[in-house]
Amino acid sequence: MTFDLPLRSPVSRLLLGGISLLAFAFFAFHIENTFFADYLGRIPLFGTERAALVQPRDPQYEFQLGVYWMVANHPEFSVPYLERATQLDPYDGRAWSQLASAYQQIGDLQQAGYAIDRCLLVDPTTPELLWQAANLNVVLGERDKAMDAIRRFVTSSPERVPIASQLAWRATRDAKFLLDTVLPRNANSDLALLISLIRMVDPEASAQVRLFDDDPKNYFVHNLAVSGTPSETSRPNSTATAFDLRAAQEKARVDMRRLIEQKTGRDFGKTQRELETERKQQIEQAFDTSQAGKKKRLAENEDIYAGAALAWQHLMADSEGFDIRLAFPYVQLLIDSNQEDAAVNAWNMLTARQTRLKSWSVAGNLIKNPSFENEILNGGFDWQYTVSDDDALGIDHTDAKVGSASLLIQFKNSRAPDAGVVQYVPVHPDTDYAFTGYVKTDSIQTVSGPRLVVKDVDAQDPYFESDDFRRNVYWTQVHGQFRTRPTAHFVTIRVVRNSPGTLISGNVRIDGLSLSPVASAEPSASGGN
Hints:
Elements: H1 10-41, H2 46-54, H3 59-71, H4 75-88, H5 93-106, H6 109-122, H7 127-140, H8 143-156, H9 161-172, H10 175-182, H11 187-201, H12 230-233, H13 245-264, H14 272-300, H15 302-317, H16 328-336, H17 340-353, E1 384-385, E2 391-396, E3 406-414, E4 418-426, E5 432-445, E6 451-456, E7 464-465, E8 471-483, E9 490-496, E10 504-517
Antiparallel strand pairs: 1-4, 2-3, 3-10, 4-9, 5-8, 5-10, 6-7, 6-9
Helix pairs in contact: 1-2, 2-3, 3-4, 3-5, 4-5, 5-6, 5-7, 6-7, 7-8, 8-9, 9-10, 9-11, 11-15, 16-17
């Protein structure tokens, strides 16, 4: 059956034209509104509100308004817009996530929990929404839901395991649970949790108290001599007292000494023996304070240290290979907390995994890589260095005393207090040790040359300090013996200067270092060329 519209009739033509005109007007109005709303939506707040009125069925503008008020820190204003956005599009995970955050911020925890559950129900795979759901569930105290979100988050984004391990630890403080049920079972997860825990402990360096030993006699005193007023000198029979230059100098010296005492806190009225006794007491007090601070930090973060130890055990038990340098921060954590046995055990585990580390050790010598024949690992018990513009460090294979390499330090006319290189060595308490090493200098220009120093990590005064080296000195041995303190744990080997404020330029080479226990009952210390 067909239907023919008689177009020749004027009424028919008028009717068809009207229908066409209405259709065109409708589509034109729709397109105009769409583009107009899109233009308005680019204008924050007022433009977006107008766009929402123009397009009341578009959830995009309701969502934008809700996000705007969230950013403006007014979640109570954002809730109505986000609710309308979820009503218009109940499958928009972003809108549910923002609504959950808004509910949480205004204190409606029940609605917040419902909204975040809806978010994961409609979009269970987007990493950003999983991460927000994990954080919100941690705040809401929903541990199981938070762990489930973190588990799915790290599955979809393995590269984000480090940040996920931090959140998971704060929510549970249970390393075993995280390693067994939440994080992927691989070396990357073990390292991520380990590094996260290490960063929570902030190991601070031992407090160093600078002791001043300035003597007022070393200061050049400027005296201003005044002979008298013009009226006095113009009188021929004046009886004015003659100016006493010696008394003025003595007064200026006393004033200078008082000023120095105020600046340094030192009483120059005390005898040398009293000052030395006071200095030793200050050093011992600083040593005790440093060790007490480490013990306190260890006690306050006992669960973190325990969690790090468990993560370390998982890492060592994992057959998957990894860069051993990523594990050095754990060795340093143990060093900074004076856990020498655990640190040595951790280093031995790394050596067992990578047998090439065995060449870093020399029989009878506690110093690792003592002749710089191997790569400097910059961590663990190997040498550690700090890059600086004041000096340059390198391995010199053209000039060595022992073997085929030496450590080259180039000072660039700087005021560097040290060479920026150090090694931590575990020692036994109340034990005698012998230290030796070789030094060569080339055109060292300074008033305070570099020295080899062995010092307890918690002490200010060194166990051993060599003479300083200046100008040109061929390979020269430095040696000495010392006895560690009753509570010693580690010593450091450094190249330092006693007057870091002075300029220095030139080259220094270090080689053939050795530290070993001796059977001597009486400790001694010496340093020389």
